[in-house]
Amino acid sequence: MPFSVLMSVYRNDKPEFVIRAIESVTSLQTLKPAEIIIIVDGEVDEALHNILKSLESTKDYSFCITQLPENKGLGNALRIGTELASYPIIARMDSDDVAMPNRFEKQIKYLEDNPDCDIVGGQITEFIGSENNIVGKRTVPCTHSEIIHYLKSRCPFNHMTVAFKKNAILSAGGYIPWHYNEDYFLWIRMALNGCKFANFQDSLVNVRIGKEMYARRGGWKYFTSEEKLQRYMLQNHLVNIPQYLYNICGRFALQVLMPNNVRGWLFRNLFRDKI
């Protein structure tokens, strides 16, 4: 089953990280993608621009590189990339992470063996600096029923690990810009559209993080984005009023009231598995 890989890059991406991410989804994979779609979200520096130009001339893989005139965010870039994909299966990948070598082989076989499944993701490990310096693991549920239950309180997929059916994404409205939560918003709409979900128990991607990544997941704008998602689920009867209130009160305490260092400690110790 041929499939596309979808990535977005923007001005803050480091060229060496982009090269490593691309290498991990092409030459190092046990199952190769038929095409790699890269959306360039606004102007980038000369070094990254030259790397992307060189990819267009490679004969080893089919690269579809689309330059957007200005940065409009990940949701917009992924919406365009999804529409450009030539194949019915699209695998997401972030521009600074490292895919496990058998990631695509596992996911494509699963989708072939389970034709009712619309999207399959997996677990992630997180590293700082060296890829061997694993500092955490984000675990998400694996079965459809567990994922639907989890979705009512937290995002049930690690976005950079998912492989999905293009028509299922488009039928749910596709990616829509949403501050830090374009993926969560999409999964909610797919659930309402009757899509079938799955996750592997295995880690599929090693994710590059910064020391302050956990601490930055806060502030009023971040909270209002998530509150609107919770309200959307309430309006569409995915959650009831008590669960909506519980979810937004917890988020308000974590994202607005807590200092960054406390929030960072909680993410590292309560929302990530120990390695």
What does this structure look like?
The model has no long low-confidence stretch (mean pLDDT 92). The protein has helices spanning 15-25, 46-56, 74-84, 103-113, 144-151, 166-171, 182-192, 220-235, 241-257, 260-270, and strands at residues 4-9, 35-41, 63-68, 89-92, 98-99, 119-127, 134-138, 163-165, 197-208. It is globular. Strands 1, 2, 3, 4, 5, 6, 7, 8 and 9 form a nine-stranded mixed β-sheet that branches. Strand 2, helix 2 (46-56) and strand 3 form a beta-alpha-beta unit. It is an alpha/beta fold and 275 residues long.
List the helices and strands and how they pair.
Elements: E1 4-9, H1 15-25, E2 35-41, H2 46-56, E3 63-68, H3 74-84, E4 89-92, E5 98-99, H4 103-113, E6 119-127, E7 134-138, H5 144-151, E8 163-165, H6 166-171, H7 182-192, E9 197-208, H8 220-235, H9 241-257, H10 260-270
Parallel strand pairs: 1-2, 1-4, 2-3, 6-9
Antiparallel strand pairs: 4-8, 5-9, 6-7, 6-8
Helix pairs in contact: 8-9
